[in-house]
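Marked as duplicate of an earlier ticket. Keeping the data here for the record.
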Amino acid sequence: MTEVADESSRDGLTGETPVRTIRRDGKVEKTGQELLHEQVLQVFVNGKLTMRLVCTREYLPELVMGRLLTEKMILCAEDVRSVTVCRFGRNALVTLREREGDALPASDSGDGGQAQKSPEGASEEPGNKDGRRPESGAAVETVASCCTGSRILDRSLAAAPELRPSAGREIRKEWVFRLADAFAKEQPLYAATRSIHSCILSRCGRVLFSCEDIGRHNALDKAIGYALLHEIPLSECEVYTSGRIPLDMTKKVIRAGIPVLVSKAAPTVEAVELARSFGIMVIGQARPDSFRLYCGESSLV
């Protein structure tokens, strides 16, 4: 069982900013609009600064767990002893369980594979008075909200066993429509800001978890992390993402062992080809009244 301590607050996810709406007829309207705050989360794994993630400040333990899995730093939730997020939401401390013969994978961090060590006392206190940590020598790459460490996934994917949906498992059309219906109703930050991505985790069409983030990769990782922390078999789940499906999003789903990837948008050719080779069902442009099936037709009933 992974120990989770999330001291961060979800207050202040958005802030109101004065804006001017300029109309074609020359009229100008002064209003206020809610905008998202961008959070930079530093992740220390076994005392080493491994990555920085640009994200929104909610479901941070889930984000960390999901990112560790989809970048193959862990293979399952049991690999993680504890996750602690400081009250400012700027630092996450991860302790991995020791396994004989295993070593912590090197981060693709632009520092030659040498992760930066955290300052003294990092294991006891996740952050100083202002929640920040002093920097030292080596640089660690910041993973932007719109990107993921796809080079890490590229290097490790070939070594992973081929993942396919459970034998005999069928995916029902009504499950997809339920996801599309839920997506239309359960996105409060999108409704307020129009500048966020969403992801829904479901099991046999029943919604288990819904989250939002400034990046679509982060939102998917949060859904995956939720399943890990709540001991939900990912091989029995479906995910619905608001973002398009490029190659790197498909790789995340393959790494997690999720058999069904549904999107409001569309996939790329390469994403469909990869999903087909791993037996993953890809559905795009999913709406409450229709969806497009790109691969995995044999499992749809």
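See parent ticket for discussion. The radius of gyration is 20 Å.
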